[in-house]
Amino acid sequence: MNAFEDLTAFQRETEALAAIAGRLGWDQETMMPRGAGEQRAEEIGALEAVLHARRTDPRIEDWLARAEAPDLAGGRILDLIGRSYNRNTRIPARLAAELARLTSLAQGIWAEARANEAPTDFLPTLKQVVDLKREEATCLSEGDLYDALLDDYEPGAKAAEIAAMFDRMRPRLVALRDKVLGQPAPAALDHIFPENGQLRLAKICATAFGYDWTRGRLDMAVHPFSSGGGNDVRITTRVAETDPFNCIYSTIHEVGHACYEQGIDPDYLFTPLGAGVSMGVHESQSRIYENQLGRSAAFTGWLYTRMVEMFGDFGVADAESFHAIVNRVGSGHIRTEADELSYNLHVMLRFDLERELIAGRLEVADLEEAWNARFENDFGTRVERPSQGFLQDVHWSVGLFGYFPTYSLGNVYAGCLNQAMRAAVPGIDAGLAQGDAKPATDWLRANLQRHGGLRTPRDTIAHACGFPPTEEPLLDYLETKFGAIYGL
């Protein structure tokens, strides 16, 4: 074999081992016995040590020097392997293994602390995680420590650019949100929706959005997520019997992630092209499935009928009222349950706080107080308990510093994709009104999903839309949608 073939054969095994590591993480959050946390942490740490050794194998440098790409995809594969090699060789094996072990252990400690409203049970472990992430960032950084971590999730993005984008978005978001909150709000649901009915309906919605059940499954987790790729993609959801939207829209959101992975060209399996190119692009799929499609008047009209069939009369008179309730704007504490106007404000809060943590300007011991003060300032509501505040998200426990801004990047990308998709496919709403998302999901698969990691994140969006990503389509969409719902 030539150098390119040697390298890609080696990479294939590395990708397969990484998939096994991901499966261990899925099991930890869904099936693992509660008492197995410390053992699982050792297992994941050991596997990460193996993966780090492969990703820093000296033969990679030699293969990269000699390899000739056979085509465009091959050239991109070489670029991505080279990027991975450059980053991983800067991180000591000890640090990689310790991060994997600690964040596996920390996840269980966070879950217990969240359930018990006991932040002091988690803070010492979180401090260890932050210290290790600062060390990792120092190894990788050529300037801003946070940029080094952000690059793991959105290659090429810079914190200063994201902060500038947030500064442009915030005034229009706050102004629109203030106008909406000045209007009478639709009444919240006041009904009990049994768990088994919610899960059946969630599966119906997942099917409507094209989730391939022969290559996927749905399970329960404390924090909904999607994992896996290729022919083994798994999603999770959660249920609150007084709030069916938590389950339904968490499921649709994770289906967006899963369908991206299921839609990638199968020829890319076990190569660096065989996964979503970035978390921002990944979030563009989950957010467009959940919001521009799943919360549209067309789809909620169909969903209203299914809800009545499943649960009987639940106190909502008609499909128009139901659409307003699905899109109800409020001042809730929980990011994953936030309306479209508030969601990005939640992300901005986390982005600012974690930048301060990584820079050392905010210490872990002061995080809860800083969170609560910022939340009250931004949302006008006090945090009453830690699970409403800094303990609500799993991300920091598992070391995902730099991940949060990709949620808002995903919203921005989704706004661009929605504008381009609706211009190209006029019949989208007619399909959604029948519970058929295929016209939309076919366009997304053809123009974005099937390409996997073939292009950079921004180029992936620009290729699909025909224009570079910008926040304007998202803000225009929100003003039009909520202006109509609230009569502004």
For the structure shown, list the relevant keywords.
488 residues; mainly alpha; Neurolysin, domain 3; 3-stranded mixed β-sheet; 3 strands; globular
Question: Could you give a quick summary of the protein structure above?
Answer:
This protein has 488 residues and is mainly alpha-helical. It contains 20 helices and 3 strands.
Structure description:
The chain contains 20 helices and 3 strands. The protein has 488 residues and is mainly alpha-helical. The chain folds into 2 domains: 3-140, no CATH class; 159-486, Neurolysin, domain 3 (Orthogonal Bundle), CATH 1.10.1370. A hairpin with a 2-residue loop joins β2 (226-229) and β3. The longest helix is centred in the first third of the chain and has 28 residues, at 3-30. The radius of gyration is 22 Å and the shape is globular.
